[in-house]
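Regression test case RT-17, inverse folding.

Input:
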């Protein structure tokens, strides 16, 4: 069974760049779930951004994916260190708690450096 690690966060925090392991050519435009398999060892899941410019079907798409995903070992929620924690980040953390997901919140310093 594939080990899954997924990246979440508001749009433009660098989810796609991290999961492609290179800088995305289409920043901030991930509308669907993207999967990247790394050496048959694990799969990175690049999620669409949450918050004000999230896709309309975000909740349906993401919640149905995350629920009962047994092989999801970590959800990494990226927070823009320049903007700080936003309401949408707290909504996401609340969902991780309700779903009992193994998550970490990671501070992105890319807008500060
Ligand atoms: N300076 C800098 N810019 C980055 C870094 N990672 C991503 N970016 C830029 O930030 C923008 C948003 O990145 P993207 O990965 O599309 O964010 P996403 O919307 O969270 O998937 C793009 O223009 C990237 O080139 C980084 O580590 N440093
Ligand atoms: Mg993206």
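Golden output:
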């Amino acid at each position: 069974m594939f080990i899954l690690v997924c990246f979440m966060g508001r749009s433009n925090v660098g989810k796609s760049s991290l999961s492609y392991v290179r800088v995305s050519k289409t920043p901030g435009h991930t509308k669907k779930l993207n999967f990247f398999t790394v050496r048959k060892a694990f799969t990175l899941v690049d999620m669409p951004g949450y918050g004000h410019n999230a896709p309309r079907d975000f909740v349906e798409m993401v919640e149905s994916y995350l629920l009962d995903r047994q092989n999801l070992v970590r959800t990494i929620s990226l927070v823009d260190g320049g903007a700080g924690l936003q309401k949408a980040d707290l909504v996401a953390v609340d969902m991780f708690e309700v779903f009992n997901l193994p998550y970490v919140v990671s501070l992105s310093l890319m807008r500060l450096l």
